[in-house]
Records
---
Amino acid sequence: MAGRPEGDDAGRHAHATARVCTPRTPVPDVPGVPDDPDDPGAPGPVWSRPSLALLTVTAAVLLGAALWHLALVFLSIAPPSPVRRTYAHAIEGHVYPEFAQDWRLFAPQPLRANVRVEARLRTAGGSGARRTGRWTSLTAQDVAGVRHSVLPSHADQNLLRLAWDFYRDTHDRREAPTGARGALATEYLKRIALSRLAHGGRGVDGERVVALQVRSRAVPVPPPHWTARPAARNAPHRTLPWWPVTPDEHRGL
Amino acid sequence: MNRPALPDRPAPLDRLARLIAFAARTHAPHQAALLRIGLGGVAAAFLLREWPHRRLLYGDRSPWAPDMAAQVVAEDHRFSVLLWSGGHWWFELVYHGAIVAAVLLTLGWRTRGTSVAFLVAVVSFDSRNPYLGDAGDNALRVMAVYLAFTRCGAVWSLDAHRRARARRQRRPAYDRAGVTLWQALGVLLLWVSDGFPHTAWAAVLWAFWAAHGLWYAAQRWPRGRQVRDLLDAATAMLHNCAMLVIAAQVCLIYATAGWYKVQGTLWQEGSGLYYALNLDYFMPWPALAGLLTHSMLVVFSLSYGTVFAQVTFPFLLGYRRLKNALLAVLMLEHLAIAVVLGIPFLSAMMIVSDAVFLPTSFLLSLGTRRPPRRGAGQPAVAGAPGQRYRTRRPGVRFPQAAGRAR
């Protein structure tokens, strides 16, 4: 079939498709002169039967692939279900990481508290004496950056906020990592705090940083004045253990 | 009017030919162009805004150190051009190259290549630190991938201008610069092909490259008319499927945002917005947030309105007038959110995504309202290619599909 001259096929089926597709307006076929491929009003070409078959298969494959993709993306963001569990491998394999998505901003519930993350350093002087610094609110620095900004930066709005979420999601209440990413989350949070508090591996007093501690507290948003709901009390601080700091952990900061 | 059925032309084949003629037409080229301009614009604006923080967010000073990023990239089967070298100058090259790609994409310069370069850049930045992006970055990444499969340069682009010029002058448009660029991209791709380990990306990029080369070859080949037509039809089908996926993706965004909110008691009692407006990270203007959250009725109406709009979005698309009104409302809401919640890039992404559903007649009327171009001395041939889109009146539907013409 492929070896047959095109004219033969076209001649045999021109009649067949004549009523279906308006014949192309006679345009001198200068090679390389673009038709207007973007003109939706232009009459389509007259397809020979093999071309029609080829295009039908193409259309079916493309449409099938598009629907398959959409089905997997849908399942990946749908609530947990037996279908999702059964085909978890196929869904993950297709969707992650390029098509991974989460659109649950402020859903199902918006946060009802402002999470404040604080950190402090422990430094060692020349004599070996350890000194523990004051708690510094890293969140307050972020909030100051966001305040009165028309275009808040990811450096203020996302960096620490999402790093804390990452840590919280990968650790249990006893601060033990719950998955393989736990160590990375710890390292990330530690380096964010170091980048804010230490300069060249040294604390504000110029002494070498040997350890770092992070704590956080959720400060509840007072309920709206039209509800009778009592204001929630401040939760106690969630204080993380002291993390030793090695010089290598300052790399690049 | 009973016509004798022609034995040579069975009805199913007739219907199939019509269907293929429909499928092989490039649908919604203006919407695709708008998406291209929007994505390129948002990405360029974002990279320029973060320029002072670029090394902290994506470079050598990032708390998400290159070795940590490399570990996650390997585990998740991602790729990031930014991690190909730890050098500072490589980072600067990629960062500024991404800005250039985004600007060129917006202008529509050699869109076939630029859209793929843009996709590589966007995925690279996302993979450099997957724990930095919010929903806006997420939407940008997903849409950038889809965009590469569309004919986003068909209209409102430098490419379209070049093609229109060639058509007017009835001269072949071999596009030597385009072919040279294509060859250069081939060499570049050969050079970096091992930069995408454990992913299908090298294969995808090579497929893009090969298809593009085939297109150029068919243009040069004097007898390539049929091949050109077939390629054109297949490309249009791919574009149509990508546009379908983009539209469905926008529906998925709204549907998940809406349906998950419906389950939350705070949204049910209509005070969801109150809490969203009281988060320090999303409160650039406390006085404005205070003003909005002061009144119970305002908070209730806006909370319910938001959830209604999001939940009903996919279902209202079928009703033309309601859909357009809803789009206007949603875009206004995103504009307000951009200011009040301080998430301008996320809002801009959502406006760009909404714009995919704007009616063609409206987009064309935007085109006609532009001031007349210089060089209006050209003979204004009625229906001259290239002038077509600008001269149509809003509300005029496109001529019927070729397959439906009697």
---
Amino acid sequence: MDPKVAALLAAGFCMGVGSIGPGLAIGNLVGKALEGIARQPEAGGQIQTAMFIGIAFAEAISLYALVVAFLLIFVA
Amino acid sequence: MVVLEHFHQKVIIPLRIGSFDISITNLTVSMFLGVGIFLILLLLLAARPKVVPGKRQVVIELLINFVKKGIVYNMIGPKEGDKWFPLVAGVFIFVLANNMIGLIPGTYTPTSNLIVPLVIALIIFFTVHITNLAKNGIKGYLRTYAPSFVPSWMYVIVVPIEAIGAIAKPFSLFIRLMANMLAGHTILYVILGLITYFKNYFIAIAAVPFALVMTILELFVSAIQAYVFAILSALYIGEAVHPKH
């Protein structure tokens, strides 16, 4: 197989597999945040702020996969 | 690839000093524009402060309270927090201004380049390690890599993990900011570039609302990424100033 073709296939695979983890993580995170807000609506502001920080962390992991995909497409 | 040619820099005024190339590119113009607009806004809001605040002063007090009590005092503690507030606030406003300026069509987002987030992350890296060394001495600095609640036989595992973490934390700070800004703009260019690719205006009925939603999401993501950068910097500085062992 041509190395360029293999690199493009790998980039697609990398991005696909690399989105499973963060997707599950963000779903769980928002679910638990909603449960927390439903139990105690007065703490809603703090829970929301903490949820956003958690989402930014989880999103960063999927962006590591994006960087590897970019490296595969353009540098190999 | 035609899509990524928007991410190349265009030189506007070439300048050289010796063998250093310090031309004015569109990155420079965007950075100065973004930071300049923010500076003029903040100076106008903070002009003529009174003890009983008027409407303009309330806005800037809100912003300063947000950074001071929400970020610095939360992570570093009230006593040391006053010393570190200018650095964290400067990082926050700089990253926020540079993220937001990319939303204006025709400008370049400085934080989507490789260099700008790397330099800010390196500043935080050196600040954290030098503060750790200066405040806790060399024994205290080595204690961060070998915390005392770990039994001695686990040092073989924990010390390499902590050492890799010392490199990985600022690296993740840099990659998180750069990749978020790059990804937002790439999605926008690809979606709107579909109209040019198919050479058909009917694609615009689907593409333009999607691009509008992505732009709103990107406004949101710029603000959140600036906040996460600032709060993580404050967290690392807090760990260096008050080591938890």
---
Amino acid sequence: MNQQETTDLFNQIVKDYSERLYWHVRDMVGSHDDANDLLQEIFIKIWSALPSFRGDAQLFTWVWRIATNETLNFLRKQKVRSALSFEKISNAQERVADDPYFNGGEAEKLLVKALNKLPAKQRAVFSMRYYDDMKYEDIAQIMNSSVGSLKASYHIAYQKIKAELKNNSIDF
Amino acid sequence: MNKRPYTTPDGYFDFLQMRLSQIPEQQQVQETPQARVSRWAKITPYFALVACFAFAIVAGRFILDKTVAQPEEDYVTLEQLYSADLLPYTSQYALFDEDYYQGDDYSYEITEEDIINYLINTNVPLNYIGQTLYE
């Protein structure tokens, strides 16, 4: 791929996937500001990796994999930073209540809080399935996992959220 | 597909696409200074490495020569001894071996003059010769 072809492909990826990638990242990090910053880093990574894209994987799953890995790295670093600064991670989870861009009802607030309590990878799988209605085969390629283990992961996440909502008398 | 319970600032995605589209240009500007490195600049570090090795070898050789090699005067002394015609150089102890001088071919009586010549050839100071012989 020459420079012009790479630039054209990159611009096509921005046009087709930037909005969907934003929501995917937002589901995992929970905050608009974090998602906004992270998206810039993700697309810089995509630009750097584009010359090595051989086309043996779907472009969509390739882009999603980069975005998911970068977001998981961000969350890992955030966890370390929280531990070192003695800030409770649950404070980040409680932030949904103060989020100015949150426009859901009480049930949805509890759902998002319950989601934020899940481990990062489980949250990613649940979000891709629940919000994006993605096929397990595509999620398996993105997460580099098997369809069977993903179905199990989704089922466990679903049960945890259901239990959390039931504690607050909400049906899920 | 279930609806997400959050929104974004107005016009966010239009601005997002515009901002992300500038990434190739920004990255190319960052990468360009590296592309301008000349060939000479690339191979200079290797020349420096070779020069360091060469200096280390030369310096090490110089130091070894100064500390390990015998002084030149020792070689001179030995050469003078070898060239002395007083004794055939077969055994350094032949001088004290009476049997060695039996027979016509090897009979040789050492005179005082021989001894003095030997001492002079081996750079023994003259005053020492005088002291030793005539005490």
